[in-house]
Amino acid sequence: MQSDFLASLRRLSDVDLVARIQDTAARERGATTVLVGHLSELDTRDTHLRAGHGSLFAYCRSVLALSEHEAYNRVAAARTARRFPAVLGMLESGAVNLTTVKLLAPHLTPENHRDVLESARGKSKLQVEEIAARLWPRRDVPSFVRKLPAPRPVETRWVAMAPATSDFSRERAAPLGSAPPAGREGPGETGQGTETSFRPSPATFPARPAPQARPPAEVTPLSPDRYRVQVTIGGDTLEKLRLAKDLLRHAVPSGDEAAILDRALTALLADLAQRKFAATDRPRPSGETSPGSRHIPAEVKRAVWVRDLGRCAFVGTGGRCSERGFLEFHHLHPFALGGAATVGNIQLRCRAHNELESRVDFGRNGRHGGGRTPP
Question: What is the rounded distance in angstroms from the CA atom of residue 202 to the CA atom of residue 161?
Fold first, then answer.
């Protein structure tokens, strides 16, 4: 049935597909709002407690099969909606979402809830956090550096490949921390040196643990124009920070890490501008390139970057793209069709929108270059 459903979607036009998605999202918001309203009422009764659930959150996890994140957001919204019923209408219309309600709930009062919720209409999580920080500012956090505990050692499990002629169910992996199983000294060999039939892979190998991804830096608004940044660094980076503090004692006697970070980023941006766009106090005048050259002059790149504010300048039916990473210089009139590398003909594009416009200009399999130039 799932295959038939997906096949039916492939037959839809772009207009019909988008219309169905928007309709489905609206119905999902409606169903979520109805669920939040019901949970709000259930929270006033002992029904879920008598059923053996220790909390409304536990009920959502066990009976409604919601994830921890889904359950927490819905319970928070339900309790907020009981205090301020206007939340339900804004949830259903999509003016605010569950995360917005959860973030603002501790600060809402009968006097301010309508204005605060309205100010958060259509905002992202970070923008909502900035609203909360502006209305209810917190003090700056102290700067500190501490060593994290060493990661736990990962035990190695030896895994034996099954003989091609045996029943795989009879093979068992050795216990954690044990040596390779006896008789598995090498591919196709036993401890006595007699040959056996194995699959074409090493008979015994340690399963390597997947590398752990480092979590991204955490940025939390504290008050207007004040943010807490938490990031994990390595020992070499810490030594560089300490060296910078020592070298800047004359300018930053306190050794404030925030001031040093600001100076470091300022120097980094100046260096990146020099490398990417050949920044100089006395740029050479030209603004254009010789006929037939694909090269974009540095002064054109600088002018375009400043004009487009370092952000993709593609404007679609839903507004301007917000991407700032992996930007490329795009020829509005394609280079392959004679487009020049001038400020008026160059705009910033994220990679996805640059490729989209290339397909529009030359087709999905076009090989005309499309005007993509990375910064």
Answer: 7
Structure token pair of residue 217 = 């830096």
Answering whether pTM is above 0.85, one says no
Is the Cα dihedral 314, 316, 321, 325 positive or negative? negative
Q: In this model, does residue 194 exceed pLDDT 50?
A: no
Contact at 8 Å (CB) between 59 and 53? Answer: yes
How high does pLDDT run on average in the chain? 79
SS3 of the chain = CHHHHHHHHHCCCHHHHHHHHHHHHHHHHHHHHHHHHHHHHHCCCCHHHHCCCCCHHHHHHHCCCCCHHHHHHHHHHHHHHHHCCHHHHHHHHCCCCHHHHHHHHHHCCCCCHHHHHHHCCCCCHHHHHHHHHHHCCCCCCCCCCCCCCCCCCCCCCEEECCECCCCHHHCCCCCCCCCCCCCCCECCECCCCCECCECCCCCEEECCCCCCCCCCCEEEEEECCEEEEECCCCHHHHHHHHHHHHHCCCCCCCCCHHHHHHHHHHHHHHHHHHHHHCCCCCCCCCCCCCCCCCCCCHHHHHHHHHHCCCCCCCEECCEECCCCCCEEEEECCCHHHCCCCCHHHEEEEEHHHHHHHHHHHHCCCCCCCCCEECC
